Amino acid sequence: MILIIGIMADTHGRVEAAKVAVGLLRDHGAEFYIHCGDVGSDGMLDLLAGLPAAFVFGNNDWDRADFERYAKELGIQCLGASGELELGGKKFMVMHGDDSRLMRRVIDQQLHDYLLFGHTHIAADRREGRLRLINPGALHRTRQKSVAILDTRTDQLTFINVNG
Asked: Which of 43, 87, 122, 164 has the highest CB neighbour count under 10 A?
């Protein structure tokens, strides 16, 4: 059972920073990797190759058909613009966060344990009802680059600063 989730978003093709981030997530015990959109390049997907991973498209991921095809070749799950996962006995909704109506609907429905998103480039952690909303931060266009690690057993979230 997958219990430790590594979360990232908004890499925008910055492969060097993403390489450091994936290493940090691995060092913190990540068993599954989720990218919340604005992947930005095949190079980012290459970093997830061979790892249990899933991603969604962001508003700056232009060539979605190519990303989806390449991800399939690498064994990475593409969730499209948004998608659901069940990990560690918890229900996750993953999206980029640029569709405010969809975010509101997910929040209002209260069907998931976690809503993982990006887009704002600002790390965030808050609850609305039973739903915990997590934005891991960004690896591009931000003062402090960050990713996050979530332990689904304890519900403990840790933001990890990324230098790179």
From this structure: 87
Tokens 């919340």 found at: 36
Average pLDDT along the chain: 96
24-66 residue pLDDT tens: 999 999 999 999 999 999 999 999 999 999 999 999 999 899 9
User: CB under 8 Å to 98, separation ≥6 — which residues?
Assistant: 37, 58, 59, 119
Please report the sign of the dihedral spanned by the C-alpha atoms of residue 38, residue 40, residue 42, residue 43: negative
Among all chains, which residue has been given the structure tokens 């940090």? Answer: 24
From residue 41, alpha-carbon distances to 64, 90, 132, 162 in Å are: 11, 30, 29, 19
Look up residue 22 and give its amino acid. Answer: V
Q: Please report the domains of the chain, with CATH numbers, ordered by start residue.
A: 4-161 (3.60.21.10)
Provide the pLDDT for residue 2.
80
**3-class DSSP state of 121:** coil
- Other beta carbons less than 10 A from residue 123's beta carbon: 22
Helix ranges restricted to H, the chain: 15-27, 42-48, 64-74, 100-109
